[in-house]
Design goal:
Layout lengths: L2 E2 L9 E3 L23 H4 L5 H7 L5 E3 L2 H7 L7 E3 L1 H7 L4 E6 L10 H13 L4 E6 L3 H12 L3 E7 H6 L1 H9 L2 E6 L5 H7 L9 H13 L4 E3 L6 H7 L1 H13 L5 E5 L4 H15 L7 E7 L4 H4 L1 E6 L8 E6 L21 H8 L4 E5 L1 H15 L5 H20 L4 E6 L7 H8 L7
Parallel strand pairs: 5-15, 6-7, 6-9, 7-8, 10-11, 10-15, 11-14
Antiparallel strand pairs: 1-4, 2-3, 4-5, 12-13
Helix pairs in contact: 2-11, 3-5, 4-16, 5-6, 5-11, 6-8, 11-13, 12-13, 16-17
Length: about 425
């Protein structure tokens, strides 16, 4: 078979929280003023209480509300594909599978948490949400989700992506999202950079600062984050929970699980349910690989320490691998991976040796993307293409060794709004960043 599809009734009814399974506790976020663990009261300025409860929960399983499941059913469960054409093209004995999150209405994995966050804000009486977006996938997802709950949505979009991807902006506006290029003149955080250079390319860290500042200064507004935090990764585990059922249906368990990493949400979503088996000791030989751009190599070259999650310093201090909160990555086309740090849960697993990481250049990632498009038919997002590149490399290793490994990766989104980048690559004009 080439495709494994579950019924609507098989959408997971609970999210998996991997935090209780860690061999040692996750370091708490710190108040930058006191250097003590941040109090829940301070977090309520920007987040509703139900999400704060999930952020610090020690429960392994958390129920998915019926209202969220109803919206999930618009596109979930997503299919698991066997990439047989790619296998044949590579001449590998490996078996390559991918979870296809590109079938959601916004075209990526992001609505798995956007719908959940919009729901919890709605039942908490929130009228407006602010957020940031890099490539536009998260902003699209939150704009999509908030319309179901009659919540206003303002998106600060990293300027380089705002300029590169106008159709993402149009998509957000179609779903009633208001899109602001960041850095902007509308916040103190943005003005610091905008006044020096109105064409500043921006970064996720700057956009986060702008969105948080607005949320913290308005009583009717909360902030919504598309990656990094525990509750975001929690919501994404529907991906891996479905994939486990589908791999069982296919008759295989992966030897290697691969995901692209910017903040860590799509990687965690696919890998955490499998990593739970490794943490329990059931699958000690499982390889889990995070893939990042060489232009923003947080896991492979960052320092593991406390740092701000944003550029200006409005967030609590978070223990993570970081390139420094003032780091502004080059304007690569994988905008969703241009973040100076990573999710604390992902960083903890990396530090403890449960996962590994690799970084690639932009041109080699797009070469893999075109190979995938020409064999499997789907034009992948630049972010997802990092995972594809590693999957191809692993499959080629199997070609050399004769091993019949089972490789699973997350196709976290499609690239149909990224065709300008493909145009540059196909004409030899893409930078090697």
């Amino acid at each position: 078979m080439r495709k494994y599809v579950l019924s609507e009734g098989e959408i997971p009814k609970k999210w998996l929280n991997i935090a209780p399974l860690l061999p040692e506790p996750l370091e708490p976020p710190l108040d930058p003023e006191t250097k003590e663990p941040v109090s829940p009261e301070k977090l309520t300025v920007i987040f509703p209480e139900p999400l704060i409860e999930q952020e610090v929960s020690d429960k392994e399983w958390i129920d998915i509300p019926e209202e969220v499941l109803n919206i999930y059913s618009l596109w979930r469960p997503t299919p698991l594909h066997r990439a047989k054409n790619l296998e044949e093209y590579l001449g590998t004995p490996a078996k390559i599978f991918y979870k296809n999150e590109s079938v959601s209405p916004p075209g990526s994995h992001k609505p798995n948490t956007a719908v959940a966050q919009a729901y919890y804000n709605k039942i908490s009486g929130v009228k407006r949400l602010t957020t940031e977006t890099g490539a536009g996938q998260w902003g699209s997802a939150l704009s999509f989700a908030t319309q179901f709950f009659d919540i206003e949505c303002r998106v600060y979009m990293v300027r380089v992506s705002y300029n590169q991807k106008p159709y993402r902006r149009i998509l957000m506006e179609t779903w009633k999202g208001e899109v602001i290029p960041s850095p902007s003149p509308f916040t103190n955080a943005g003005r610091r950079f905008y006044e020096k250079d109105p064409e500043h390319p921006g970064s996720l860290g700057i956009a986060i600062s702008e969105a948080i500042e607005e949320a913290a200064t308005r009583d009717d507004t909360k902030y919504s984050l598309g990656s990094v935090l525990n509750h975001v990764l929690l919501h994404q585990t529907v991906i891996g929970l479905e994939a486990k059922k589908q791999m069982e249906e296919a008759g295989f368990y992966p030897d290697v699980v691969i995901g692209a990493v910017g903040g860590g949400s799509n990687f965690a979503g696919l890998s955490f349910p499998f990593l739970a088996d490794k943490l329990r000791g059931d699958k000690p030989d499982l390889e889990v690989i995070a893939v990042e751009p060489e232009a923003c190599p947080t896991l492979t070259k960052g320092e593991y320490r406390y740092d701000f999650g944003d550029t200006v310093g409005l967030t609590p201090l978070i223990k993570m691998y970081t390139l420094g909160h003032d780091f502004v990555p080059p304007p690569i086309h994988a905008g969703g991976l241009r973040y100076h740090g990573d999710a604390p849960l992902v960083c903890k697993l990396y530090d403890l040796g449960y996962i590994s990481a690799v970084a690639y250049k932009q041109t080699e990632v797009f070469e893999a993307a075109v190979t995938f498009a020409r064999t499997e038919g789907i034009v992948p997002a630049p972010e997802s293409s990092h995972a594809i590149k590693k999957a191809i490399d692993e499959a080629l290793k199997c070609k050399e060794t004769g091993e019949e490994k089972v490789i699973l990766f997350n196709l976290s989104g499609h690239g149909y709004f990224d065709l300008s980048a493909y145009d540059k690559f196909l004409h030899g004009e893409l930078e090697d960043g």
